[in-house]
Structure of Transposable element Tcb2 transposase:
Amino acid sequence: MDWPTRSLELNSIQHVRDAVAMADSSHHPPLRALPELKTAFAAGVGSIATDTPQVLPLQHAVMLQVVSHCERNSSTVMRVWKQWTDECRTTRKSGSGPRNVTSARDDRHLVRMARTDRTASSRQLAALWSIATGVSLCASSIRRRLLQCGLRARTPLYRIPLTHDHRRLRLQWANQHRDWRADWQHVVFSDESRFNLWYHDGRIRVRRYAGERHLPECIIERHSGRTPGVMVWGAIAYHRRSQLLRIVGNLNSNRYIREVLQPEAVPFLQSLPGAVFQQDNARPHTARIVKSFFAAQQVQLLPWPACSPDMSPIEHVWDVIGRRLARDPRPVASADELWVRVQTIWNALPQSDIQTLFDSMPRRVAALIAARGGHTKY
C-alpha cells in the first residue's frame, strides 16, 4: 500500500508489542480478562484513524514476540488484532453478552430481601424470591446480582449475647468512667484464658483438586471432647505485668485465693501504690469468701459490668498470644510444650504495646456510650 512520508506514528507493529508489555508487566491477567489486553492494543495503535481502518498485517516475527512475552496463544493475539483492523474497536459491542434476568427494580427488591435477613443464604433468598414473585431464580444469579449491588457474604463478628439489663449496666458504667484519663494507669487488669493444643481460628482452608475431599491430608480432625490445652492467669499494669500462672484443672474460689491471689496478685498490687484491681464477674471471682479476702487485704476493686470483655485490654493480649501461636509452624507435642510457648510470648511482649492498650481505654468508653451499652468494635 502507498505510505505517506514522515508517518512513523502510523506503523503500529512496535506499538502493539509495547502496549501489550505495559498491560502485562506486573502480572499476567487471567485468560478471561481480555478487555485489558484489548485496551493495550488500542493504546498502541490509537494513532490510526478510526474512520478508515488500516489493514496492516501483523508480521510473523513480531507476533511471536508478543505471544512469548504475554504467554498468550497466537490465536488470541491474532483475534484481538483482527478485531481492531476489521472493526476499529477494542471494546465489546453494546448489548453483547448474556442479558440480566432481573431488572433494576428486581435488583432493588433483592437487596431489600437480603438486608431484611442478613444471614439468609443465596438458596434461601432464591426460595423467598420464587414465593414472592412466582419466578424461579437460581442461587448463583442471586449471588451475582447482590455482588453487583455491593452486598458480599462475609464472616460475621461473634459477640456475647447482651440482654437489656446488660446494655443498661454497661452504659451506666461507661457514663461513670467517661472522664477518666490518667486514672486508667492505676488499674491492674486481670483475667484467665485458655489456649488449646490444636489452635485455629475457624478459617482454615485446604488446597486440593477435585475428588480429593476425603484424602487424609485434606481432613481436619475435630475432637468431640475437651481439647487438650493450658489455662493461664495474668495481670497487666501500665508499667509492669505479673508473672503468668498456669492453672491445672477447674478453678474454684478456694483455689483462686490459694493459687492466684495470695502468691501473685496481692503482692503484685502491693508493689504498685494506689493500684485498683480489675477482674470479671466469673463465679470464682465473686464468691463471698473471695470478697472477704479482698476486704482483709484492703484491695481496692474496680466495679465491672457483666459481659464486657471489650472493655478489658488484657483480652487483646490473649488475642496477640493466640495469633502468634497460630503463626508458629512448629507442631506442639504436649500441653507442657504449649505452656512454655505461651509463657515465652507473654514475657516477650513489649510493655509499650500494653501501654497502647491502656491508652485506648477512653476511646473504648466513648465507643460504649455511642453504642448505648451495645457491642463495640473492641
Summary: Residues 253-270 form the longest helix (18 residues). Residues 164-203+227-371 form a domain with the Nucleotidyltransferase; domain 5 fold (CATH 3.30.420.10).
